[in-house]
Amino acid sequence: MNSTVRFPLEDPLYKAGQAAAEMLQARDRNFSLPQPFYNDEQLFALDMQNIFEKEWLFAGMTCEIPKKGCFLTVNVGDNSVVVVRGEEDSIRAFHNVCRHRGSRLCSKASGKVAKLVCPYHQWTYELDGKLLFAGTDMGSDFDMSAYGLKPVHVRTHGGFIFICLADEPPALDDFGDALSEYVGPHGMDNVKVVAESDIIEKANWKLVIENNRECYHCNGAHPELLNSLYQFDDTEDPRATPEYKQVVERKQNDWESEGVPWRLQRFGQQNRITRTPLVEGTVSMTPDGQQGVGQLMGRLTSPDMGSLRILHLPNSWNHVMGDHAVVFRVIPIGPQETRVTTKWLVNADNQEGVDYDPETLRKVWDATNDQDRQLAEENQRGINSLAYEPGPYSETFEFGIIDFLDWYSQRMLSNLQGLEPELKLANAQ
Q1: Which residues, 6 or more positions from 369, have their beta carbon under 8 angstroms from its beta carbon?
Q2: Pairwise CA distance, residues 135 & 329, whole Å
């Protein structure tokens, strides 16, 4: 039998994959997904294997590991990954698994070490993953070089760290290069995290993303956010008003004169970057819409930079402003449970209590995150009902969800169908 086949034909997960493919092929792209995609254990396992174990994921910021030996960990399903800064400013990622008996090496979310040492039997690894010490009892023929840490693909662009668990990761260069260009004026190599929120939403990860991809709900749910944020984020939005388009044109002229990138960039349906104005009279996502940090980001001379909106599917959206940035990371925990991590960043030269108040900076998105949590959880509860059936999206207000689910469906079908020839061959043998 072909040794590369992941599941035998009788495996329930393989059968779930067949069922998922049939449902995705039959779905109406302007309707929500069938119920199992939001609450079924086996379809969740397929999501983890075919999306989160194969796509580039936003893991964190380079500023979080500023010096040699600094590390952060990210849990992707059952896979713990450690990202560490090593010699000559290199950043590497490894499976957080000792090659001895599989214990986790780093149990904390972040920290600083001289070497990576397993707490179980003290096997010791260099920051480049090389095994340095395995005790004296492994035998004379033990080959140290064969037991280095297993690497994970890692890329950094504009201060953002991305990891990919796949053997052969998909392309990232075009989006990554544009990301570096667009955040360049904000000086993301000289920032620090000044506040962090970690919340658990009792909802499927796709519901969390769906909620983010539309502002149909904003008027009724997000008074704090709408104090500074327009409900649409570019002039191609079918809801964009003539007044908004006039503001956009005026602001774009200002940004052009400062050499700040602003044009909408799309990278398929997975990634997009655009700079869009904030509501007239506001310059930041603070409670009063005014500058909340003394020293602006990077080389900027005006706080009125709007919001640089960055979408990276499947697990991140971001807002980068003139005075601070807010980055979001989504990691599924279970079929109906998702971790949403939010971090607030400012120019590293700012002093807490002098140049900014972290509690003030986080008020708008703390409120918005909690409102979104409640909405997603109520959505999940309704979907779990016997009465649920896929409902229609508004092409005017919810086109972002349609794009997201088109991307999700395409990636799932591509990866599920990729197994088909091997499985048929195995069956024939």
Answers
A1: 197, 199, 340, 342
A2: 39
| Residue 420 pLDDT level (bands cut at 50, 70, 90) | very low
- Tens of pLDDT, residues 284-310: 999 999 999 999 999 999 999 999 999
CA distance 373 to 148: 41
Burial of 123 (0-12, 13-18, 19+ CB in 10 A): buried
Pair 150, 209 in one domain: no
Q: What is the count of structural domains for the chain? A: 2
The answer on 405 and 359 residing in a single domain is yes
Q: Which amino acid is at 291?
A: Q
C-alpha to C-alpha distance for 171 and 312, rounded to whole angstroms: 13
Instruction: Report d(CA 204, CA 58) in Å as an integer.
Output: 18
Q: Range of 411's domain?
A: 1-55+191-429
Q: Which of 285, 286, 308, 305 is nearest to 296 (CA)?
A: 305
Do 10 and 29 fall within a single domain? yes
Neighbour-count burial for 394-422, b at 16+ CB within 10 Å, e otherwise: eeebbbbbbbbbebbbebbeebbeebeee
Is residue 20 a part of any domain in this protein? yes
DSSP structural state of residue 285: S
The answer to whether position 171 is within a domain reads: no
Are residues 212 and 286 both part of a single domain? Answer: yes
297 shares a domain with 329: yes
